[in-house]
Specification:
About 45% of the residues lie in helices and about 15% in strands. The chain is α+β, with helices and mostly antiparallel strands and about 170 residues long. The chain has two domains: about 100 residues, no CATH class; about 50 residues.
């Protein structure tokens, strides 16, 4: 469990999954294994309001094609599973984690997200440097293009989270 976690249980009550893909989007993109898949119970979000509604809208703003689930082991807002899988114990592990505003982890996620954005901006500066080198140095341009391709591949991994604007 994250040291900032206050045990609100929102991460167990509203688990966003890309429709039909079995990809968990609450902590970046994670493929759901069979064990975790068996924990999920689909929920209807139409009647949910308050902070939970705000969280649902926050997720849907990024991913319109999500469905929400809850964990079958969450009973009376307490986790009742004996041994939690890593997807639970390590959450939130990504700077791209989508957490509700009330989550105690939000400050830590913000800092990690800003560090990732800074890294992406630095990579974009490197790409520009290599593009200049390509225009001035014919003999290594193929190598530079390969480097640019790899750097762009890294940046594009975060495209759904807005990396084009970072």
């Amino acid at each position: 469990m994250n040291i900032f976690c206050n045990g609100c249980g929102m991460c167990c009550k509203l688990i966003p999954v890309k429709s039909g893909d079995n990809i968990l989007v609450r902590d970046g993109f994670q493929i759901i294994d069979d064990e975790f898949q068996s924990f999920l119970i689909k929920i209807d979000t139409e009647s949910i309001d308050g902070a939970s509604r705000e969280y649902i809208e926050k997720v849907k703003e990024l991913f319109s094609d999500v469905e929400f689930f809850r964990c079958k082991y969450l009973i009376n807002d307490k986790c009742t599973i004996d041994t939690k899988p890593p997807v639970c114990t390590n959450y939130p592990s990504s700077p791209l984690a989508i957490v509700p505003e009330e989550c105690a982890c939000i400050g830590d996620i913000f800092i990690k997200n800003e560090e990732l954005k800074r890294k992406i901006r630095k990579i974009k500066e490197e790409i520009l440097d290599y593009e200049v080198l390509i225009s001035t140095d014919d003999k290594d341009s193929a190598s530079y293009k390969k480097i640019i391709e790899n750097l762009n591949r890294f940046v594009n991994k975060y495209k759904d989270f807005g990396s084009e604007d970072w």
